[in-house]
């Protein structure tokens, strides 16, 4: 009877969920905003229309993802940019870039924080590289970092705090069930 009860409990436990979350991210890329849209299971949104809005909801433009789920957008004004894509079946990807980050892309000086007594001005050293060399290096680094960003976003979606706490809860539940069964055996024997 106890084995049957344990079997029923094991069958009643929920299995792994087959749902997936939407992953959307944007980051600066030279004078452009580059982004990606996909799902936590690794599927990327290909040939997907992405609408661009400002912080007040005014439409700024549109772009389309490529075969890898990446898109590029050239900002025109130093305002907050919100990227939104309707992936169907209730999945809507939305991510944004702050006005300060867009201002830096456009070469507009962002507001500087008030200096504190212990801060020192840091001036970058001259590198001796031409603008073409810098652009080539930036492109190479960006292409190498793309897969890492995708893996980090997918990992973050799969291993969140709720998953960890759920696993710990299952462990405590199994221990509790074991202690309960042991106590019942002890009472029945004694």
From TrEMBL:
The chain crosses the membrane at residues 164-183. Residues 1-19 form the signal peptide. The keyword Transmembrane applies. Keywords: Membrane, Signal, Transmembrane, Transmembrane helix. This is Cobalt ABC transporter permease. It comes from Pseudoponticoccus marisrubri.
């Amino acid at each position: 009877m106890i084995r049957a009860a344990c079997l029923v409990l094991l069958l009643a436990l929920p299995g792994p969920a087959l749902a997936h979350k939407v992953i959307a991210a944007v980051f600066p890329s030279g004078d452009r905003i580059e982004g990606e849209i996909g799902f936590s299971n690794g599927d990327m949104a290909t040939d997907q229309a992405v609408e661009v809005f400002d912080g007040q909801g005014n439409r700024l433009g549109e772009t389309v993802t490529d075969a890898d789920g990446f898109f590029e957008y050239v900002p025109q004004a130093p305002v907050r940019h919100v990227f939104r894509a309707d992936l169907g079946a209730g999945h809507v990807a939305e991510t944004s870039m702050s006005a300060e980050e867009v201002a830096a892309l456009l070469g507009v000086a962002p507001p500087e924080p008030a200096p504190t007594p212990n801060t020192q001005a840091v001036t970058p050293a001259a590198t001796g590289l031409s603008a073409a060399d810098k652009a080539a290096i930036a492109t190479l680094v960006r292409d190498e970092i793309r897969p890492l960003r995708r893996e980090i976003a997918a990992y973050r979606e799969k291993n969140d705090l709720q998953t960890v706490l759920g696993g710990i809860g299952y462990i405590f539940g199994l221990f509790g069930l074991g202690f309960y069964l042991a106590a019942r055996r002890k009472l029945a024997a004694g």
